[in-house]
Design goal:
2 helices, mainly beta, 13-stranded mixed β-sheet, 19 strands
Length: 331
């Protein structure tokens, strides 16, 4: 009898909850689509601009509408003008290859929209003097490969600390973006390789002129990119320090034959590719606000972040990234 009463209560509770559901209509204003521009000028690479339309946050459709009927022009140093050609899926490509110091203006004409404009200046390379390993620490090591209950290989997890010695230009506000990639090679064919971005933690910066370390001069987080300015080391020769973790295979001596078919050895060659890019203020603010906006999704009780844009009559970024890559080989 008690079971019957229990199920009756559940049924009525379900009906009550269902009857309480109410669809709340959106009372705000519908936002018309804007033209979204995404482009980074990279020295010695042809100019490429991507165009799409923004999407209202209550729209149910996936993806974004590419703009394929625009007229896209760039003007170099206020002089020569080039019209970019549409390639595919909203990408417009030119022939001009920017040089450091170039001032590039963008003009985009899309039917039904006001002219979209922006201007950016291509930055010179960052001044990397050297890159060195400061420390290597074994964090964990455990047997991970067995043949008939016999250990033939270990997995070892190391933490590396790397120092990038740079000379920051004086009397100029500089902005940087740091990325790190690992490139692994096949033992059988050294021309075959794969690359992936590493997550790393930017720890701080030290300066020989002050003999001090500015700990956590930015958010001490593990990410696959970090952007920062030279506020704490302007005009100084300094060392940027970052750490990353890496797992390595350690084959038990005499058991190499078990791994040969897979191309694994104790000495698999791989490179660490460090890229300290110079960027401009607009790109720096765009990256910072974009990263902050992505973190908002961790909780709904957070103020929305307005992503920085330097596009007139649209949104997005017309920025600049100047690579300076240093490769540490066979680490």
């Amino acid at each position: 009898m008690k079971n019957i009463q229990y199920y009756i209560v559940l049924v009525f509770a379900g009906i009550l909850l269902a009857s309480c559901q109410k669809e709340i209509e959106f009372s705000g204003e519908y936002t018309e689509p804007l033209v979204v521009v995404n482009s980074y000028l990279i020295p010695e690479s042809t100019v490429q601009v991507h165009l799409s339309k923004s999407r209202f946050f209550l729209d149910n459709k996936r993806g974004f509408d590419w703009i394929e009927n625009a007229v896209v022009e760039i003007t170099i140093n206020g002089d020569s003008t080039e019209t970019l050609s549409h390639s595919q899926q909203g990408f417009y490509i030119g022939n001009y290859r920017p040089q450091a110091g170039d001032s590039i203006s963008l003009n985009v004409q899309v039917p039904g929209f006001d002219d979209i404009t922006s201007t950016t200046v291509v930055q010179p390379k960052s001044n990397i003097i050297s890159v060195d390993t400061i420390a290597k620490k074994l964090v964990d090591r455990y047997p991970s490969y067995y043949i008939d209950d016999e250990v033939v290989g270990y997995s070892a997890y190391y933490e590396y600390e790397i120092g990038i010695r740079i000379k920051d230009p004086e009397a100029v506000k500089n902005y940087y973006r740091l990325t790190v990639k690992q490139r692994g090679y096949s033992v059988q064919d050294s021309t075959q390789f794969y690359e992936y971005n590493l997550y790393f933690t930017l720890k701080g910066v030290s300066s020989e002129t002050t003999s001090s370390v500015f700990e956590e001069f930015m958010e001490n987080t593990n990410n696959d990119e970090h952007v920062f300015n030279d506020e704490l080391f302007n005009g100084k020769e300094s060392v940027l320090q970052f750490t990353y973790g890496n797992s390595q295979l350690e084959v038990v001596p005499g058991k190499e034959e078990y791994f040969e078919d897979y191309g694994f050895t104790n000495n698999n060659p791989y490179d660490l590719i460090i890229n300290l890019q110079s960027t401009n203020r607009d790109s720096y603010l765009y990256f910072k606000t974009k990263m902050a906006a992505e973190q908002v999704f961790e909780t709904v009780f957070t103020e929305p972040v307005q992503i920085h844009t330097n596009i007139t009559n649209g949104v997005g970024i017309f920025g600049t990234l100047t690579d300076h890559k240093v490769t540490l080989k066979n680490r």
